[in-house]
Amino acid sequence: MDLLQLDDFDLIRVVEEDHDFHIYAKLSDETTHCEHCGKYGIIGFGRREQIIKDLPRLGKRSSIYVETRRWRCKHCGKTFYENLPHMDEKRRMTDRLVQWIGEQAVRRTYSSVADGVGVTEGTIRLVFAEYVQRKYDAMRFATPRWLGIDEIHLIKPRCVLTNVEKLTAFDILENRNKKTVAERLAWLDHRRSIELVTIDMWRPYRDAVASVLPDATVVVDKFHVVRMLNAACETVRKALRAELTPAERRGLVNDRFLILKRKHRLNGKEHMMLSGWLENYPALAMAYEIKEAGYRIYDAKTRDEADAAFEEWRASVPQEMKGAFGDFERAWRNWREEIIAYFDCRATNAYTESLNNLIRATNRVGRGYSFEALRAKVLLSEGPEKQAAARPAFQKMLSRDLTIERTVHQMRAPTRYGTLLSTLPEILRKSDLDPKQL
Asked: How far, in Å, CA of 117 to CA of 94, rounded?
C-alpha cells in the first residue's frame, strides 16, 4: 500500500518507530529545463535532503525525506533546486498538513495538535491564525431573522451575537459598548430582514439596535426579568437568617434551593419542608408568594393580560416588601415596551445563555485563549455544523460491486450553516474537559 498517497512522488521505503513514521520518497519526474530562462540544457550541481512534515498516521507523527537536486543552466548560468509539489510555501509542511492543523486546532488545544504533529506550539498558533483568516475571508453567515445579543465576561465583557431562530452562534465582539455593537449591526447584509432582537436590560444594546435596526422589535429576555424576583426573595431570606440563632439556621438547611424553586416543581418531600418553613416565618412566606405571583405574570396569553397582571402584582406588594422587590418594579417601568413584547412572540435568549456557558468552558480548556483564538474556535467549529444531508449508515461492499474508487481528496466538503449550539458540548468532550467544569 502507498502510505504516502501523493501524486508526483514515488515511495522508496518506510521506517516505523515507536512514535514516528520516516517516509523516504523521490520525485516521479526529473527536472528537464531551467526555471529561470525556460530553456533545456541543465546539469547537476549538487544534492540535498529535505525533511517535510506530513499528516499523522496511525497515531504517529510522519516526516517525508526527499533528496532534491540542484541544477545549473548552461544558457543563463543560474542555479536552482527542484521544486517540491504539494508543499506549503512558508514552511516545511505538506499543504494537506497545514489544512489539517487548522481544522484540528478549531476543536483541540494548540499543545495537543503540536504533540501529534511534532512541531512547536508557536508554529500551530501561526498556522491556525492563517487558517482562520482564510476562513473569515470566505465565510459569510446568513443574517438572522431573530438576533440574540448578550455578553460574556472574558477578562472584560464581550458581546455575543446568535441566531435565535436557527440556534447557531453568529459572532463575538471585542466589547459590548454601543459603538461596537452598532458598527457590527451596520455591516450585516440585508440587515432590514432582522425582525426581532432579544437582549438583556443593557441600555447600549437597545440604543444600538434603535439606531441601526429601527424596524426590528426589541424583546427583553424573560430570564433577566424574573431573576430579579429570585434576587428579591434572596434578600428577604438572608435578612431573616441573620436574625436567627445557629440552631434555628440548622433547621433551614438547603432552604435557598427550595425557596427559589417554583411551587409546581416541588416534590412531596420538598413541599412539606417548605410549607413548614413558610408557616414558621411569615416574612419568608410573604416574599415567596410575591415571587410566585411575579412569575405568574408570564403565564399571560397576551400583552394586555400581562400588563394587567403586573399592575395587580404591584398593588398586592405590601409596603414592607417594596424595598426588596423594587428592582423588579423599576425594571418593568423602565423597559415596559421591550418586556411586554415577549408576549407577542415568546422569544428568549436561552440559547445565547447556553453558548456563553460553552464559551467559558472552551476558554478553560485552552487555559485562557486570546480573544481572537476563542472567537475563531466558536465560529469555525466545523464538527458540529448542520449539514445538508446526514451520513448514511455503513453498508458492506461486495468485491463484485467495486466499480468506482473514491479517495479522500475526491470527497465533497460539507455545506456550512454555522456552529450549532446544541452540539458544541461534543467538542468540549473531545477536548478532554473535566465534565464537572460544565
From this structure: 12
Read off the DSSP letter of residue 230: H
> What Å distances lie between residue 144 and 189, 214, 218, CA to CA?
10, 16, 14
* Predicted TM-score (pTM) of this structure: 0.64
Q: How many Å is the Cα radius of gyration of the chain? A: 31
φ and ψ at residue 360, rounded to 5 degrees: -60, -40
Question: Half-sphere exposure (CA, 13 Å, Cβ side) for 421?
Answer: 24
DSSP at 91: S
**Residue 233 to residue 321: CA distance in whole angstroms:** 10
Answer for the pair 152, 403: CB distance below 8 angstroms, yes or no. Answer: no
Q: How far apart are CA 432 and CA 228, in angstroms?
A: 36
Please tell me the predicted confidence (pLDDT) of residue 383: 31
Using a 10 angstrom Cβ sphere, with 0-12 exposed, 13-18 middle and 19 or more buried, the burial of residue 54 is: buried
pLDDT value for 174: 87
In SS3 terms, 162-215 reads as: EECCCCEEEEEECCCCHHHHHHHHHHCCCHHHCCEEEECCCHHHHHHHHHHCCC
State the DSSP code for 412.
P
CA dihedral 170→173→177→179, nearest 10 degrees, is: -80
What confidence tens digit (pLDDT) does each residue in 134-156 have? 877 777 778 889 999 998 887 78
Give the tens place of pLDDT for each residue, 91-119.
889 999 999 998 888 778 888 899 999 99
CA angle 296, 339, 188 (to 5 degrees): 140
DSSP assignment letter at 243: T
* Cβ contact 352:326 at 8 Å: no
